[in-house]
From TrEMBL:
PANTHER family: GAG-POL-RELATED RETROTRANSPOSON (PTHR11439), PEPTIDE SYNTHASE GLIP-LIKE, PUTATIVE (AFU_ORTHOLOGUE AFUA_3G12920)-RELATED (PTHR11439:SF483)
Entry protein name: Reverse transcriptase Ty1/copia-type domain-containing protein
Source species: Tanacetum coccineum
């Protein structure tokens, strides 16, 4: 794109550039798959997954068409390029592609119903947005706290290595976590020395803190962005986190007005 106000299409991604920023979405593709699977006239819902729903194996459930189920999952996977709000529920449904049942299909159809009501959502990058690498880690219990932090640190290092050829300059990269004890274990010498039994992957975090690559911060659970990728949230919290992920809803009329502005 060489001119402001231009829209380009690549792999079904619609990239709209205007004087205020860049908007990326896949509304055209979303409309196509809604029509393909006959869900284009369904009633929309406000969240993609019922709060606290726990999908699991359903050996006694009613089997459904595996080919169609896999096709529906694959189409939604494609949409996650611009829809981080779909990542968690789509990945959960993808686990049951081998032997899907009516219960799994109902959960999957709900995602399409949510999609129908949020067709114009996408990723919004305002003009002059600062380029900064920030990480969030979430865990539900005990050992997972340190595994989550370790994996997050490893991902940070990988991203940092990929960006070294660009003009971005990174000092300490903030990692926000909602567990104070996990942070203390990585930053407190006394606690750390008493925890040598912990697997080496947990010490990896400590090493990155000492090297100045990562700086750990505590964040209240209500503001933990990683939660949207790890659990089914109530509507209020789900909607609260969406704009903080850089998501925004822009209709074709709004985009046209911005491009002309």
């Amino acid at each position: 794109m060489s001119m402001m106000g231009q829209m380009s299409f690549f792999l079904s991604l619609q990239v709209s550039q205007n004087p205020r920023g860049i908007f990326i979405n896949q509304s055209k593709f979303a409309l196509e798959i809604l029509k393909k699977f006959g869900i284009d006239s369904c009633d929309p819902v406000d969240i993609p997954m019922v709060e606290q729903l726990k999908l699991d194996e359903d050996p006694l459930g009613i089997p459904v068409d595996q080919t169609q189920f896999c096709s529906m999952v694959g189409s939604l996977m494609y949409l996650t390029a611009s829809r981080p709000d779909l990542v968690f529920v789509v990945c959960i449904c993808a686990r049951y592609q081998v032997s899907p049942t009516k219960k799994h299909l109902e959960a999957l159809k709900r995602v399409f119903r949510y999609l129908r009501g949020t067709i114009n959502w996408g990723l919004w990058y305002p003009k002059d947005t600062a380029m900064a690498l920030t990480a969030y880690a979430d865990a539900d219990h005990a050992e997972a706290e340190y595994i989550a932090m370790s994996r997050c640190c490893a991902q940070i290092l990988w991203m940092r290595s990929q960006l070294t050829d660009y003009v971005f300059v990174f000092n300490k990269i903030p990692l926000y976590f909602d567990n104070r004890s996990a942070i203390a274990l990585c930053c407190n010498n006394v606690q750390h020395s008493r925890s040598k039994y912990i697997d080496i992957r947990h010490h990896f975090i400590r090493e990155q803190v000492e090297k100045g690559v990562v700086e750990l911060y505590f964040m209240m659970t209500d503001y933990q962005l990683a939660n949207i990728f790890t659990k089914a949230l109530p509507r209020e919290r789900f909607e609260f986190l969406l704009p903080r992920l850089g998501m925004k809803s822009m209709s074709p009329r709004t985009l046209k007005r911005l491009q002309e502005g």
